[in-house]
Amino acid sequence: MPVSIRKEAARHPILAAHLRRELALATWIEAVLLDQVSIAQELAGVVAEQVPELKPYLDAYVAAPGNDAKKFAAVYLMLKYPGTRPYVDEGLGRPTPLHQIGQLPEQLVVCAEGKGNSRGGWQPTSRPPPKGGA
User: Fold this and answer.
1) Among candidates 19, 40, 18, 20, which has minimal Cα distance to 29?
2) CA dihedral 45, 20, 72, 52 (to 10 degrees)
3) pTM assigned to the model
4) Angle, to 10 degrees, between the axis of helix 17-33 and the axis of helix 67-80?
5) Could you read off the pLDDT tens digit of each residue along the chain, which spans 134 residues?
6) DSSP states of 25-86 as a string?
7) Which among 106, 82, 110 has a CA at the least distance from the CA of 96?
């Protein structure tokens, strides 16, 4: 779906509040990544309203004097809030707060439970069959 249509959908009151929040943020991130500065500028206020913890960073983006400065401000926001991404999660959304990286992949959890090899690396629980059918 084009960013311009997603921008309008993010403002529409028919969407539930959590979906407007996620859609506005995802659309802003996508506009930034695609260098659609005018759309990102317009959405910055909507995102700041929906996600108040990002307001200082979005204000810095809007106030930045040129495109390079705007990119820097946007990248800084994305680094400070690694939960930002250019898509909306299905279901109830992202369970981890935006400022946290998120849940670890299952492979790392297996290692943390002591099921890794002696060097601390991950080993699969089943081995692939040997070549030649033996």
Assistant:
1) 40
2) 60
3) 0.70
4) 130
5) 788 888 878 888 888 888 888 889 999 999 999 999 999 999 999 999 999 999 999 999 999 999 999 999 999 999 998 888 888 877 666 666 676 666 654 334 444 444 444 444 444 444 455 666 55
6) HHHHHHHHHTT-HHHHHHHHHHHHHH-GGGHHHHHHHHH-SSHHHHHHHHHHHHHH-TT--S
7) 82
What is the spatial distance between Cα 128 and Cα 34, in angstroms, rounded to a whole number? 42
The encoded tokens of residue 120 equal 């601390």
Q: Are 86 and 25 in contact (CB under 8 A)?
A: no
